[in-house]
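agent> Task received from the user: take the single chain below, predict its 3D structure, and emit structure tokens. No templates, no multimer pairing.
agent> Plan: (1) validate residues, (2) run structure prediction, (3) serialize to tokens, (4) report one or two observations.
agent> Step 1 OK, no nonstandard residues flagged.
tool_call: predict_structure(input=
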Amino acid sequence: MAIVKPFKGVRPPQDLVEQVASRPYDVLNSEEAREEAAGNEKSLYHIIKPEIDFPVGTDEHDEKVYAKAAENFQLFQDKGWLVQDEKEQYYIYAQTMNGKTQYGLVVGAYVPDYMNGIIKKHELTRRDKEEDRMKHVRVNDANIEPVFFAYPDNAKLDEVVKKYAAGKPVYDFIAPGDGFGHTFWIVDNEEDIAVITEEFAKMPALYIADGHHRSAAAALVGAEKAKQNANHKGDEEYNYFMAVCFPANQLTIIDYNRVVKDLNGLSSEEFLKALDKNFIVEKKGAEIYKPNVLHNFALYLDGQWYSLTAKPGTYDDNDPIGVLDVTISSNLILDEILGIKDLRSDKRIDFVGGIRGLGELSKRVDSGEMKVALALYPVSMRQLMDIADTGNIMPPKTTWFEPKLRSGLVIHKLS
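)
tool_result: status=success, residues=415
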């Protein structure tokens, strides 16, 4: 069963939150972070993308860059831009996008739960990316950014959240750039804190929705600290890492699409003919075509959109991985026809989050940068949870969650 605990969050004062809060470290590059933080010494980018404090071109993995993150984290606390709460409490973080609001509980998730599989993953992680985040956690002795979990629907937790959401929030702002709303409350009533802890303790599993590398890094550093502490008891703060947990029924996964540089030596006509083997191919014209059902794909080639519908027998609806459209397209198009065997390492393929719209696919093809684009019908939360429950791993670049968690609303110290 899932163990969570409240914690003494480190947060910006109410009047500074919009200056401090930032997008997550991994959704923008160093140049974009430098631009967004320009003229703002209070931006969290100085802690999560500290290379912006060095000359352009500085390696973000240089040891002095990690040291700068810790220096800036301390500076933010010394200046009062980040202040630690006096008591352990939970927090509620709501995000609003396109008129829809989802409510997450910010908790300390239990490191052993990650190690023993109660916190379930659906993606593989890369060791180099894990090590980068582990260094960041180690040097700051804190989880600066949260991970994004889903939990099975729970009526009692819904009641607690509803009660606080009816009151005045601590933070409430519209983020620049994406225009999404971010609202934040503190759960400081002891009875409500106890209910949250007890209800999570009844859950057989929590699910990583977004942030597999951050989850791995946070848990591995926690386990590392436990091993290094000769007097380890098990209740130390490093045994927990910060997660924002949303009820699964509030979350929406959007499409995660593919663009490919070439047709593997085929002409456009040969490529379309090769698709006929496993798909019903229909030409749709120049207007954007969006897949409208499972096993239907949109293809963009030579200024034209096509509908591809996988033929019966090309997939297995009883196999949690085989039923995924990302599996069908990876096996029958990217591998079999285009010769792309490894989505993680092949330089001929790139991935485009659905938040950018399908117009981004045609733009990248029309520019000549890419030759063909493939749009997929999004995975459901039920599929994600089924895959995690059966111990399976999704193919790379399968899920894209929006809105992304804003970083800097609360930070969790490990000691």
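agent> Step 4: summary for the user.
The first strand starts at residue 4 and ends at 5.
agent> Done.
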